[in-house]
Write a structure and sequence with these properties.
Helices cover 47% and strands 13% of the residues. It is α+β, with helices and mostly antiparallel strands.
């Protein structure tokens, strides 16, 4: 199964690259591309086999996202999140899962985290009201996981896409094709079984989906955090490939090919080695996270700090390497149709994403943990377990 999915992902890369500029201009992925990727199983990597999914784990998911990212970052971002959101859906009660996966192996579901809306208890469920930005994947989704306070508890609730208002407000310069628009609900009814406390969904075993035979449903979320980071690994691979092709070209009518310039060869080989190193770091970090998950006890603050520092290293290394490659291409590197420029811009934006926190804050947080100083007063962060 894993080999088949990897081959399928590689098969889509030329098509994704060909469509990337048009998808960026449109502000969303191509509809037919999404349908084809879904049919190929690229969004159901970790969905249990009993629902027709791949039944695979974090390493295989990392590889699929990495491969797709060699085509386009926005496409890989949505691929990663659709898979992760399926993982969350398969932790809801089994009767909910049976209904969701009755005629499909994956549920294309967006998910948002903050700010929480409000869910009032009513007969048979909840009435949910709220407005949430950054709903990545909603433009091609059938459902969304939305946050809301139920009494004093933070819940995630499954809401049908047809019950949500979608605002066309994704006005950004990078990661444009994700179409991460704002969604809203106004007193939408959600059946009781379609809502669970967020802590339950994040836990290794205190959720209904722990009965699945696949061990990934007895892992904490921390074991899957390398999925989105794998996008960076794939993007740098693509950057190295694209820059290598560019070495054969001259930077001007009176200039020799870039490959004859020592400075440009140095830029390229630095990126080449960075790509090798970040993959080694990603793989080692994934192995450590899986080993901790199998251990059955939560990671210590020191162990979590190590994982998050590795993630920050990958993000910043890829960002720097891609920017250096673009700068080595001169002004042509900033053309709107330049794929290397798009990769670099998308990665630069993602390094600011709230998923891993602000760089300065995250680095200080984990320095404190390694030094035994604990949480800083007023630190807004949360642990992954």
């Amino acid at each position: 199964m894993a080999t088949r999915l990897f081959e399928a992902a590689r098969g889509f890369v030329p098509r994704i690259r060909e469509q990337a500029q048009a998808m960026e201009a449109a502000g969303h992925l191509d509809d037919d591309l999404v349908e084809a990727m879904d049919a190929a199983g690229l969004f159901s990597v970790v969905v249990p086999k009993c629902w027709g999914g791949g039944g695979l784990g974090p390493r295989e998911l990392n590889t699929v996202v990495e491969i797709v990212a060699t085509g386009d970052c926005s496409t890989a971002w949505i691929t990663g999140f659709y898979n992760l959101h399926n993982w969350f859906l398969c932790r809801f009660p089994m009767e909910v899962q049976a209904a969701l996966y009755a005629d499909r192996a994956s549920v294309r579901c967006a998910a948002v985290f903050n700010p929480p809306g409000k869910a009032e208890r009513v007969d048979g469920g909840y009435e949910v009201t709220g407005r949430w930005g950054y709903a990545t994947g909603i433009l091609h989704a059938s459902h969304a996981l939305v946050p809301a306070m139920v009494d004093d508890a933070f819940f995630w609730l499954i809401v049908a896409r047809d019950d949500l208002e979608v605002s066309d407000d994704w006005d950004v310069a990078s990661m444009v094709a994700t179409g991460s628009v704002t969604i809203a609900a106004d007193r939408v009814f959600v059946p009781e079984a379609h809502g669970l406390p967020f802590g339950v969904l994040m836990s290794p075993t205190d959720h209904p989906g722990a009965v699945h035979e696949e061990e990934v449903y007895r892992f904490p979320f921390s074991a899957l955090t390398l999925a989105t980071v794998s996008l960076y690994v794939g993007a740098l691979d693509a950057g190295v490939e694209l820059a290598r092709a560019g070495l054969e070209k001259a930077s001007g009518p009176a200039s020799p090919p870039r490959i004859e310039r020592a400075a440009m060869r140095t830029r390229w080989v630095n990126a080449y080695e960075a790509a090798r190193v970040v993959r080694l770091v990603r793989d080692a970090t994934a192995d450590e996270a899986i080993a901790i998950a199998r251990r059955g006890t939560p990671p210590t603050m020191e162990e979590e700090a190590h994982e998050q520092l590795h993630i920050q290293f990958i993000r910043q290394t890829v960002k720097t390497a891609l920017r250096d490659l673009v700068d080595g291409n001169g002004s042509s590197g900033y053309r709107s149709d330049n794929a290397l420029r798009r990769m670099s811009s998308d990665i630069a934006m993602l390094t600011t994403h709230a998923l891993n926190g602000e760089y300065d804050l995250a680095m200080d947080r984990h320095a404190r943990w390694l030094l035994g100083l604990g949480w800083a007063p007023g630190d807004p962060g949360e642990r992954l377990t």
